[in-house]
Amino acid sequence: MSNDPLVIFTPSGKRGRFPAGTPVLTAARKLGVDLDSVCGGRGICSKCQVTPSYGDFPKHGVTVSEGALSEWNAVEARYDRVRGLKTGRRLGCQATVQGDIVIDVPAESQVHRQVVRKAASARPIIMDPATRLYFVEVAEPDMHEPSGDLERLKEALEEQWDLTGLVADLSVVTRLQPVLRKGKWQVTVAVHHAANSNTGQILEIWPGLHESGIYGLAIDLGSTTIAGHLCDLVTGEVLASSGIMNPQIRFGEDLMSRVSYAMMNPGGDREMTTAVREALNTLAGEIAAEAEIDPALILETVFVCNPVMHHLLLGIDPVELGQAPFALATSSSLTLPARDLDLAALNSGAQVYILPCIAGHVGADAAAVALSEEPNLSDDLVLVVDVGTNAEILLGNRNKVLACSSPTGPAFEGAQISSGQRAAPGAIERVQIDPDTKEPRFRIIGCDLWSDDPGFAEASAATGVTGICGSGIIEAVAEMRMAGLLDAAGLIGSAEQTGSARCELEGRVHAYLIHDGSAEGGPRITVTQGDIRAIQLAKAALYAGAKLLMDEMGVTSVDRVTLAGAFGAHISPKHAMVLGMIPDAPLDKVTSAGNAAGHGARIALCSREARIRIETVVGQIHKVETAVEPKFQEHFVAASAIPNAVDAFPILNSVVPLPSPSFNTGDGADGGRRRRRRG
After folding, report:
1. CATH 3.10.20.880: which residues of the chain?
2. Fold of the domain spanning 216-361
3. If you average pLDDT over every residue of the chain, what do you get?
4. Strand order of the sheet with strand 200-207?
5. Beta strands of 536-645 (E only): which ranges?
6. 29-56: b (≥16 Cβ within 10 Å) or e
7. What's the CA angle centered on 366, arms 364 and 367, to 5 degrees?
8. At 524, phi and psi to the nearest 5?
9. Is pLDDT of 551 > 90?
10. Which pLDDT belongs to residue 625?
């Protein structure tokens, strides 16, 4: 093995060894990392900004010391002096590798802008917002009846709108007098009423009749991606949606890696808190600009997130979530000022509502899914699976609802995949393989044509074929299984065994070639044995969690399955079932709910009554802890097979008969895995 420094890029997870002195930009280009640069490495354009991370990274197996990158040079110093660099940022064209290093590529430095796969679904919501506008006429000051302007404003709100018990913080009081006089004693007031509270808070005041609207953000704070939806708090309309990668991914791809980082690096929790809050401010600014509104008109934000993200957002050390009994600092819903979370991009008086957590590893995102999909009101037994880096699973009906989380990891997001990338233009999102010829065809994000359609080359020229995203890798693995290129154990066959020259030898195992763009200077996109293993681990964790809930419920089947999250809307039920991600069920009973967690956040943003309702429902959901259930491991091992080593999947087999090759020859002569002899 080379002694050259190891360079790991996040969020892509791509890594490689490079001689000391290699520019970060050069390393990124050789690995196919999405890092922008237009000035030819002269340090002028600033497109190649990166953020190095230092400390212990057990997930990556490296410890990064302070000297892992070269010192600032004159070019970086000049750029920082003239235009400014964010704290901790380096220019990838100037910084050189000196030791093992973990480097985060921020969203603004990536060539291809992320596509929001967690887009808002258009579903009706009964409007009952916690923040409302009230137009009032305030009595002018009187020498004979001395009272303060604030007191007379409160009296007007009580007399004209029956609002009592109102409070206002100092930021409102300091602006009150000039606003009242500018409006000639007619003003519009934004008042926020928290759920389960009889008091209200004056958030903002405008002179005269305010006609520019007020807005709120519904944010799904995921482990890998952050998706935000800007909503009109009067109509409920979604004006803009946007998403960014969670910058915490550079500290660890999955939740436990981040908890470990906080444990092993003093102040690591504060680093991750700062990183995510900065990202949220960036997202809020971008989404307001997209909608062409003043960010100061954003008066409320609702967050849904898993418990680790919940604690890191609030600035709470997540160490207790890394060890039994997985105690939360608080599981209740929270209403607090946005400034407490350093959300400076919003109105200074903006309020934040965070949905309640169900238990130690079943968070507010699961509560949001329950609010959106309402399994507690279902007559039939429904399994709701919110697929992501940390999967939330609900099983229930009117009688009982169970919940658990399952650590699927980032493979479904395209991370830890050899040619994986986030969902961006140019990424393969759909794959089909001809079972006879073993030839693939695919579709990329940003182009409606399949790769074998006439005109595909011209239509995709702007983006090229850049990699494969989460939905693409899921379909690719399922299609390989259906085409006989992959056996039930997850082993890719050789060219001789499969009859396809696309099955190429890589060391002692094989990889399947989907696309070769090397002739045009593009990447070779393959599904490797390591990719298969990553998908096996992810889907096995997901299925084991569902089976554990079924065991607890005392059932062997479910009436219907709802796929939620970014992948629920982008993979077919057939492919999900072929992989063994979900239990066997009629394909017409497997439906997509889109971004259920995000929709739940929008419901909570637009409805005060919904907040009260979900706080009650969460108290009735029974939590199953996968980490301490001995049968979880048993189900996990069985679910590592594709689709499963124990469960028969009769409904699936009646629709999609799966071939049964076995590529493990036992001698390793043609890439098979060598069986270990028991001595």
Report:
1. 131-207
2. Nucleotidyltransferase; domain 5 (3.30.420)
3. 88
4. 131-137, 186-193, 200-207, 166-168
5. 560-564, 590-594, 622-623
6. eebbbbbbbeeebebbbbbbbbbbbbbb
7. 60
8. -95, 120
9. yes
10. 82
pLDDT for res 675: 43
Q: What share of the chain is helix, strand, coil (3-state, %, to 5)?
A: 35, 25, 45
User: According to the CATH classification, is domain 6-109 in 3.30.160.20?
Assistant: no
Instruction: Write the pLDDT tens digit of every residue in 459-480.
Output: 998 888 988 988 899 999 999 9
Tell me which architecture the domain covering 131-207 has in CATH: Roll (3.10)
Q: For the packed helices 149-161 and 170-182, what is the interaxial angle rounded to 10 degrees?
A: 80
Is the model's pLDDT at 679 over the cut of 60? Answer: no
Q: Quickly count helices (H) and strands (E) in the chain.
A: 17, 29
Q: Please choose, from the candidates 667, 622, 282, the residue with its C-alpha nearest in 3D space to the C-alpha of residue 508.
A: 667
Position 673 scores a pLDDT of: 44
Q: Residue 41 in contact with residue 29, Cβ under 8 Å? A: no
Q: Strand 427-433: give its sheet, edge to edge.
A: 440-444, 427-433, 467-468
Whether the Cβ atoms of residue 276 and residue 282 lie closer than 8 Å to each other = no
Distance of CA 220 to the CA centre of its chain: 7
**Which residues make beta-bridge pairs with 207?**
187
Task: Report the distance separating Cα 50 and Cα 103, nearest Å.
Answer: 7
Smallest CA-to-CA distance from 442 within 461, 428, 456 is with 428
| pLDDT the model gives residue 18 | 94
Say if residues 399 and 388 touch (Cβ distance below 8 Å): no
